[in-house]
Design brief:
- The structure is a single chain.
- This protein is an alpha+beta fold and about 750 residues long.
- Helices cover about 25% and strands about 25% of the residues.
- It has a 6-stranded antiparallel β-sheet with strand order 1-2-3-4-5-6.
- A hairpin with a 3-residue loop joins strand 21 and strand 22.
Length: about 750
C-alpha cells in the first residue's frame, strides 16, 4: 500500500514536470527516446518506476495490477525498457479468457488465428506457452485450422491461416512436447493439403488469397477489385507464411515417420520460394512486390509490404544480396514503418497510412538479423513511443500524425503486447529456436550497452537466466554456468536451472545507410473506359506526370499528362482476347494501381451457356436479375455435381468462369464463401470460388474466379463438383450460391 501511495505522489509531480534527462537513446525531429522518458513536442511520457509510468497525453497513466512473476523477467539500466516490458506482461494477463485462451484486445474478446499465430511466433510461445497452446487449439475446427472471418466470406479468399503453423511449431520448440507435436501434425497436414488443392497456382508456384497483413479490401487493393479478384491475387506475406508452413510440415512429418509427406511438403516449400523470387521481386526497387493482381494477365503492384519483406529475411527466402537491398529499401517514416508503401490516397487510416507495432517488431527482428544497428534503434524507439505515450499497447496508429485516431483501434492489443515483449527476446538476446536447441544472435544498439538480464525463461526441461553484456552485432563469447562454449548455443537436452552469459563484440561490422522520410502516397487509380470500339479513355489523375499503357500486363506505351485533347489511347484491331489498363506515374516515379482491365475482343467474343440448361432452376424468390429461365442453386446438399456438356467451336485455351450471386453475407466479412472444383476431360483443372456479395442480397451479380482450360473442338463435358476440400469455415455448413451462366472466353 505504501509503495502504491508513493507511486501516486510521483504521478502528481511528473504530470507537470519533465524528468531530468540523460543522453537520448534515439532522437529525431519528431520524437526522442531517453532512458526514463519519451518526449514528443509538448507531450512526454515519464517512467516512474519499473511498474508505473505517466503520460501528459490525455493525462494517461499505468500502474501494474497483476502478479507477473511466473513469466520471464527482464531488467536493464534503461528503465524505459523494463517498464514497457512489465506493462506488456501486465496487459497480457487482461486477455486471458475463461478457457485459458488469449483474446485479441481489450475491445475484441475473440480468439483470432492471425493474431495468435504472429504473436505466438514472435514472443508468446516463450512468455506463456500454456495460454498459447489453449488459444491455438481454440482455432481448430473439424481437424483443420480456422481461417479468420474476412473478405468475401473469408476462406478461400482470405487464406493466411497457415500462420497458425508457425505458432504451433514455436510452442513445440519451446516446450519439447511430443504429444503436442503429434496432435498438431495431423491438423497441419489436413489443412495444408486442403489449401494445396484449392489455392495453389501451378503456373507461378504461388499461393492465392488476400494479403495477410490486412483483411479489408479497400485499404490494400484498388477499389475496382471484387472479392473474386482478391481471391486470385498472389500476395507476398501470405506466400511467405505458406513457404515456412510447408517447411515446418516437412519437419513434423519426418519426426512422425511420414517420410513421403515430408518430401512432398519440402518440395512444395521450394516451389513457393522460387515463385516468390521469380514473380514478386522488383529489381528496380530493391524489394518484393506486395502482390500480383489483375484478372487474366496479372501484374505486380509496385508497392512494398513490410511484414512480407521481413518474413522473406527471417525465413531465408531472400538471398544475402537481396537481404541487404531490402534492409535499405523499405520506407521508414518519422513514427515507424508502415504496413506497405507508398500509401493509397483518399483511403482512411487503418492498414493504409498506418503503423502496427507487430509489423514494426517483425521488421525490427529482420533488420537485426541483417545487422543494421541504426534501423534497430529506430524500430525499438517506434514501438516504445506509442506504448509509453498512450500508457498501453495500442493496436495501431496513423502513420502521418502518430496519433491513434485510426478507423478502428483498441488498447491492450495482443499483437502489440507480443511486439513489445519480443524486443528483449528476439533483439537483445537474439533468441532463435531450433529442434536442436536455442541459438543466440543478438544485435544490441550502443545505447543499451550495459548489462541486460532475462531471467526465469523456461525452455523445455530447463530454466535459463540469460545476461547480455555490451553492445554490437555478434556474440564474442558465450558462457553457460561460467564455462565458455564453442558457440552461442544451448542444447535442447539441457535440464535444470542454468545461467547463460553472452558477451558482445562492442562493435558493428557495418553501419546501415539509415534515414527516415515522410510518408509517401501514390497517385490515385485511374478511372478508364472504352470510348467506342477502339479507344481507351481515362480521367486526369492529380499529380500524374505520365501514364503507362498496359496490354495483357505489359507496358506498350508511355503517354505524358500534358495532352490538351484529353487522355486516351487508340487500340489496334485485335484477333483475340486482350486486356488494356492504364497506370498513373508521378514526378517521383511512384505508380498508382492499374485501372480495371478493359477487355477488347476480336472475332469470337465470349461464349455463354445458361446454367438452367444443365440443372433445374431454383424457385428461390429472392433471386432476381438472372439472364436465363432461372438461376441454379448450389449448396453443400443441392446440385453437388453438375455436368456441363458443351460444343466447343475451336480448339484452344479458354477462360472459364460463372456469373453468380451469393447473398450469404457481406463482401467484407463472414465465413460463407462458396466454392467448387472444376473438372475437364476426367481431370481436375482448378477451383472456382463464389465469394459473398451482400447480406441477403441475391440480385447482386458478378463473376466468380476463373480457371484456364485447354479444350478441343467439338463435344466436351465440364463437371462442377462439391468436394470435401470445398468445405469452408461456416459452422452452419453454408456453402451456397446462385448460378446464372457459365462463360467461356477464348484466349487464343
Amino acid at each position: 500500500m505504501l509503495r502504491k501511495l508513493s507511486i501516486l505522489l510521483l504521478f502528481i509531480v511528473l504530470s507537470h514536470v519533465a524528468v531530468a534527462q540523460d543522453a537520448p537513446l534515439y532522437s529525431s525531429e519528431t520524437f526522442s527516446l531517453y532512458p526514463r522518458q519519451i518526449v514528443e513536442g509538448k507531450n512526454h511520457a515519464d517512467i516512474v518506476a519499473d511498474n508505473a509510468l505517466t503520460s501528459t497525453l490525455d493525462h494517461r497513466k499505468w500502474i501494474q495490477q497483476a502478479s507477473t512473476g511466473r513469466f520471464p523477467q527482464f531488467a536493464c539500466d534503461m528503465t524505459v525498457s523494463n517498464t514497457l516490458y512489465n506493462l506488456s506482461l501486465d496487459e497480457l494477463t487482461n486477455l486471458w479468457g475463461k478457457d485459458g485462451s488469449l483474446h485479441a484486445s481489450k475491445l475484441r474478446d475473440e480468439v483470432w488465428t492471425r493474431d495468435l499465430g504472429y504473436g505466438t511466433f514472435l514472443s508468446l510461445a516463450m512468455i506463456d506457452p500454456t495460454a498459447a497452446q489453449a488459444s491455438l487449439m481454440a482455432r481448430v475446427w473439424q481437424g483443420k485450422i480456422l481461417q479468420d472471418d474476412g473478405t468475401g466470406g473469408a476462406w478461400p479468399v482470405s487464406t493466411d491461416r497457415a500462420v497458425w503453423v508457425l505458432g504451433a511449431w514455436e510452442v513445440y520448440l519451446v516446450t519439447g512436447d511430443r504429444q503436442w507435436l503429434k496432435q498438431c501434425y495431423e491438423i497441419v497436414r489436413h489443412s495444408l493439403m486442403q489449401d494445396e488443392n484449392m489455392i495453389y497456382d501451378s503456373q507461378t508456384g504461388l499461393v492465392r488469397g488476400e494479403m495477410s497483413v490486412a483483411g479489408i479490401r479497400k485499404e490494400v487493393y484498388p477499389l475496382w477489385m471484387q472479392p473474386a479478384d482478391i481471391a486470385q491475387s498472389e500476395c507476398l506475406s501470405t506466400n511467405a507464411l505458406f513457404f515456412r508452413a510447408n517447411e515446418i510440415a516437412s519437419k513434423m512429418a519426418r519426426m512422425s515417420g511420414d517420410n513421403t509427406s515430408s518430401q512432398h511438403f519440402m518440395q512444395t516449400a521450394q516451389r513457393i520460394k522460387e515463385g516468390i523470387n521469380n514473380h514478386l521481386w522488383i529489381e528496380s526497387r530493391g524489394y518484393y512486390s506486395q502482390y500480383r493482381y489483375g484478372r487474366v494477365n496479372q501484374i505486380v503492384s509496385q508497392r512494398s509490404e513490410t511484414l512480407g519483406e521481413a518474413l522473406c529475411i527471417l525465413f531465408g527466402i531472400a538471398d544475402p544480396q537481396r537481404v541487404q537491398r531490402l534492409s535499405q529499401s523499405v520506407e521508414s517514416t518519422p513514427y515507424g514503418v508502415t504496413c506497405f508503401a507508398p500509401q493509397i490516397p483518399d483511403v482512411y487510416a487503418y492498414h493504409n497510412n498506418a503503423l502496427w507495432p507487430y509489423v514494426q517488431a517483425y521488421w525490427l527482428w529482420a533488420v537485426a538479423q541483417a545487422k543494421c544497428p541504426q534501423a534497430v534503434t529506430y524500430g525499438i524507439a517506434s514501438i516504445y513511443r506509442t506504448a509509453a505515450l498512450m500508457a498501453t499497447n495500442m493496436e495501431n496508429a496513423v502513420a502521418t500524425t502518430g496519433t491513434t485516431a485510426t478507423a478502428s483501434n483498441s488498447a491492450n492489443s495482443l499483437l502489440s503486447i507480443a511486439a513489445n515483449l519480443s524486443i528483449p527476446l528476439r533483439v537483445f538476446a537474439g533468441i532463435e529456436m531450433t529442434d536442436e536447441g536455442m541459438t543466440f544472435r543478438p544485435l544490441v544498439p550502443k545505447g543499451w550497452a550495459n548489462n541486460k538480464q532475462l531471467n526465469n525463461l523456461k525452455y523445455r526441461k530447463a530454466i535459463l537466466d540469460i545476461s547480455v553484456q555490451g553492445y554490437g552485432d555478434r556474440v564474442r563469447a558465450c558462457y553457460v554456468d561460467g564455462k565458455k562454449q564453442k558457440d552461442a548455443f544451448v542444447p535442447s537436452s539441457l535440464t535444470g536451472k542454468h545461467s547463460v552469459r553472452l558477451v558482445m563484440n562492442n562493435e558493428f561490422g557495418r553501419y546501415d545507410m539509415f534515414a527516415t522520410q515522410e510518408v509517401t502516397f501514390s497517385p490515385s487509380t485511374p478511372n478508364a473506359w472504352m470510348d467506342g470500339a477502339t479507344r481507351m479513355s481515362w480521367q486526369q489523375v492529380a499529380g500524374a506526370k505520365e501514364y503507362k499503357i498496359l496490354r495483357n500486363g505489359s507496358v506498350i506505351a508511355l503517354q505524358p499528362e500534358s495532352r490538351i485533347e484529353g487522355n486516351y489511347f487508340d487500340i489496334q484491331d485485335e484477333e483475340g482476347y486482350a486486356e488494356y489498363q492504364v497506370v498513373a506515374v508521378d514526378s517521383n516515379g511512384l505508380e498508382s494501381f492499374a485501372s480495371e482491365p478493359l477487355i477488347h475482343f476480336g472475332v469470337g467474343n465470349e461464349l455463354q451457356y445458361d446454367m438452367s440448361a444443365f440443372a433445374a432452376p431454383s424457385t428461390f424468390e429472392q433471386c432476381r436479375g438472372y439472364g436465363c429461365s432461372g438461376a441454379v442453386e448450389i449448396s453443400s446438399t443441392q446440385n453437388t455435381r453438375i455436368e456441363i456438356p458443351l460444343d466447343v467451336p475451336a480448339e484452344g485455351d479458354y477462360l472459364v468462369d460463372f456469373r453468380y450471386a451469393n447473398g450469404s453475407g457481406s463482401p467484407l466479412s463472414g465465413n460463407s464463401c462458396a466454392s467448387r472444383m472444376l473438372w475437364s476431360n476426367g481431370k481436375r483443372v482448378g477451383s472456382i470460388v463464389f465469394p459473398q456479395r451482400g447480406k441477403d442480397i441475391w440480385n447482386n451479380w458478378g463473376y466468380s474466379t476463373s480457371v484456364r482450360v485447354h479444350m478441343n473442338q467439338g463435344p466436351q463435358t465440364l463437371l462442377l463438383i462439391y468436394e470435401m476440400d470445398n468445405q469452408n469455415m461456416s459452422p452452419m455448413d453454408v456453402n451456397r450460391a446462385m448460378l446464372d451462366h457459365i462463360r467461356l472466353i477464348p484466349l487464343q
